[in-house]
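Table S5 (text form). Sequence records supplied for joint modeling of the two-component complex.
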Amino acid sequence: MNNLKRNTILFPLLFIGLMILFIVNISFGSITIPFKEVYTSLTGGQASKSTWEYIIINYRLPKAITAVLVGMGLSISGLLMQTLFRNPLAGPYVLGLSSGASLGVAFVILGASILPSFLSGILLSPYGIVLASTLGSTSVLVLVLLVSQRLRDTMAILIVGLMFGSFTSAIVGVLTYFSSAEQLQKFTFWSMGNLGNLSWTSILILSICVLLGLFLSLLSIKPLNALLLGENYAKSMGLNFNRARFIIILATSILAGSITAYAGPIAFIGLAVPHIAKLVFQTSNHTVLFWSTLLFGAAIMLICDVISQMPGMEITLPINAITSILGAPVVIWLLVRKRNFK
Amino acid sequence: MRFSFYKILLFSVLFSFIGCKNNETKEVINAVTTTNSIQYSKSLAIHKQDGYTVVTVSNPWPDAVKNFTYILKEKKGIVPDSLKKYTQINVPLQSIVVTSTTNIPFLEMLGVEKSLVGFPHTDYISSEKTRALIDAGSVKNVGQNEKLNIEQLIDLAPELIVTFGIDNNNPTLENLQKSGLKVLIQADWMEQSPLGKAEWLKLYGILFGKEKEANQLFDNIVKEYNDAKQLVANEKPTSTVLYGSMYQDQWYVAKGSSWVAQFMKDAKADYLWKNLEGTGSLGLSFENILDKAKTASFWIATGSFKTLTELKNANPHYSQFDAFTNKSIYTFEGKLGATGGTIFYELSPSRPDLVLKDYIKIFHPELLPDYTFTFAQKLN
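The corresponding structure-token record, covering 722 residues in total, follows.
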């Protein structure tokens, strides 16, 4: 009853907060645009300066939508991984997806000369980075799924994921060693994450991927709740454990893979947000956790983006710097408390 | 109490550095009796003496704490005892390793490119003359991207390695010197004035015993540069210029005192970030750039774009600028050498006169009707 009361108060509050943050995110940027102009542009009117209208409709609005998609997707995949591996420090990239994406992107930016000709034509196009990132994370996903079919132990899958991560990182390391300063700068920029610059087409593709991933996650809520009590208990409840695990890994991969492809590897959000949701709602029920993580993820990403845009300043900060600055204290606090962590 | 002790320690260390720097400069000044033959460069000083030359390189990298002094000794020259502690290099050189493509044109201008025996990452070199030497195997690849391969260099044993540092930490250079190789740190990349960058040619003139040729060549570049400047002397800088391009969320513009900004000033154009203090570049947000430069008459784009379509595909926001609609976009970095090196990076520092003429041709085409671009290309 108490919980129900809390939920009926908190959820509407969270939702309204998210709406407000969305408007705030669009209203603030390095150029100061009067709120009246923001409102006029968003409601289809004509702003007094054409550049303002363009900035709001074609730059800030897509960026805000991307922030929402990224925040939701990464937070949910973090939640899935933490429950599946029963490890509070797992995140969306624990299976080596971001390392796979990094490897794909590293080949495009740093090692274009060693790519086979039939690939380089495709990968050096404007969508090359997105394609390479998708190819990289998909390859790792396929490997992880193949291994997960063979391995019965969930922990073994986690270790395999970490191994893939180390292996691909090492290859990226070799590629960076042979790269020029400009290439390294490009690659570093990609790895710092980026929410802006997505065309409407890209946002449409990303939305479809994220919605598909979220739908698969919704299907997994029951198995996730069963998993809280351990694999054996879940099996005894009649859960088809292998199938559930497959869907959970697939959902995470679609979410984390597509987000990394378009926005780069965004740090910490996936790890920190599920814990914030658990703290605020004080429950381990995934029906509640799913929606709260979703809303918190979007809200926190919008806040991080506002900060990274440094309103009123000419310079901007990379989004990963902000997510880490906010996320790192949470992780440290978790490590300190880990002994009491259930 | 403890705090003040550390303070004193810190200051004494700092002052000892400053002291060293000043003493060294004073010593060198006392030892030379001729005037510095360098006019434009801020990081290079050359004092020609009887039988030897004192070369001082200051500010070799941002926030450098020391200067470098080299004694270039001719065959029969006698170096005074007070200068014996500095690195001594016997000139004229027969073999050299350089590590920056910007030095290749200097060697070619003086006709001594055959002395080049090694270069890190030879693919970056675009000049056909030197590429032929690489293909013939007389220029060895001695490492990757400034990461010099020490074993190869020791084996090659060039008479001098001319390289550069990017900060105070250069373990590779120390290792090379320990192995008995002569290393000269150069700082042409730190120079911000167009003629200052090109004046480093004079260093190579002395290294190869070709001072006269180097001085003549440089004087000619100065004359060409000043003649071009004279052409636009009475023009008003009416064209506004946007510079750079975006990567991810950052748009890099050149600061107001940078090498690029000075060319635009000399070519009588109104560079929109001319008042941005400092050298180098600064990353700004797209919002800022669009707000300030939507109506700019010209856009000098960085990157090797060839067409407007390519530019728009790279980033749809690019098409919002008036310069895009009016097809007034130029790039200097589109021409590549046979192995992918950017010709502009290699040749432009040594030929500021050609860079300036390219800029004048862009902003005031009527003043140079018969001139064809050396580096610049218009995006179609």
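Note: The longest helix of chain B spans residues 2-31.
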